[in-house]
Write a structure and sequence with these properties.
Length: 330
């Protein structure tokens, strides 16, 4: 016989220990900044994140409309020959700050949602969620969040800060690109009379941007965030879990795709840490060396584009080697 008091207790227990999904919190945080934290149980933190995101979003829209209206007015005035077409002083600085604010708060919303959800799981004694696809997705969209997902909270925030720093470091490259294009427009180098020359000039500028220090720093942080998450998930998996080495078409395709996304992660999933970190280290080092040579003026953008095939070969080697390693278990 169940007493009324016992019935009351059984109804309260599920509510007091409501399970929180880290995966769902991450999706909520990425879809609507602040919602993931509110879902995971931190309403104040969520409302602050949402308020900041809305502030930067309104600022961005206001600045964007101002730029578009000013540009269109000047364009129509030039058509009517009221005055020559020349870009006025537009609020590009405010536009850039608002863009950075939106991206930074969006990234913070994702990592904060994962952090709050993990804390809730530890508090309620729920088993940790360990999924390779989710770990990769979380680390790709928000480097550092994958480390928090696997239990390395401090290291995760360090990687997250490094990734955000890389965004700031890439700004000088964009400013230099804008100044270079402006000078070429004024000098007449960017002319539609010679489309092939125009394409080559733009291609050279994009190569310089891709191999700039800030861009390479940012990509390196993302690669090591993904690789670290994968290594941690593989380490925590049971010793009997050999699905990534046992011959399987599905897992072979997954390993191939992982090598394309981040060279070396396929080997890390197979718990071959030495080979995995070797592939990743060589791939990242090749990109950094090319960027250093290009930035120092030792090579031209065309030569840098040619040397980038070394990185591509390393990437494809990592992609092919991991599935091929399965063959020895046939």
């Amino acid at each position: 016989m169940i007493l009324p008091g016992e019935i009351h207790k059984t109804k309260e227990r599920p509510d007091s220990k409501k399970p929180i999904s880290v995966h769902r919190a991450f999706i909520y945080g990425a879809s609507a900044p602040g919602l993931g934290e509110i879902y995971a149980g931190s309403r104040i933190r969520g409302f602050i994140t949402a308020s900041l995101f809305i502030f930067f979003l309104v600022w961005f829209n206001w600045t964007f409309i101002d730029i578009m209206v000013s540009t269109m007015n000047l364009f129509f005035d030039s058509i009517n020959q009221a005055r020559p077409f020349a870009l006025p002083d537009l609020p590009f600085f405010s536009f850039g700050i608002s863009c950075l604010g939106i991206y930074y708060i969006w990234s913070w919303a994702m990592i904060s949602s994962v952090d709050v959800a993990i804390k809730h799981q530890k508090k309620t004694g729920e088993p940790p969620q360990e999924s390779v696809p989710w770990g990769v997705a979380i680390s790709w969209f928000c480097p550092g969040a994958g480390q928090i997902y696997t239990g390395s909270r401090q290291f995760g925030y360090i990687l997250f800060a490094g990734y955000l720093l890389g965004i700031l470091l890439i700004l000088p490259a964009y400013i230099h690109l804008y100044q270079s294009i402006s000078l070429m427009v004024k000098s007449g180098q960017l002319s539609t009379d010679n489309p092939y020359a125009l394409i080559n000039i733009i291609k050279e500028q994009m190569i310089k941007l891709n191999f700039s220090f800030g861009n390479l720093f940012q990509e390196t942080a993302r690669y090591f965030a993904i690789a670290g998450t994968i290594a941690s998930l593989a380490y925590h998996s049971s010793g009997a879990d050999n699905k990534w080495t046992k011959p399987s078409a599905a897992y072979g395709i997954a390993l191939f795709a992982m090598g394309w996304l981040c060279p070396g992660t396929g080997q890390l999933l197979q718990k071959r840490n030495k080979a995995g970190w070797y592939f990743l280290g060589c791939y990242v080092s090749s990109m950094l060396i090319i960027g250093l040579l290009l930035g120092s003026g030792f090579i031209a953008p065309k030569s840098a584009n040619t040397l980038s095939w070394i990185s591509i070969l390393l990437q494809w080697s990592a992609m092919i080697e991991a599935p091929f390693h399965m063959r020895q278990y046939i």
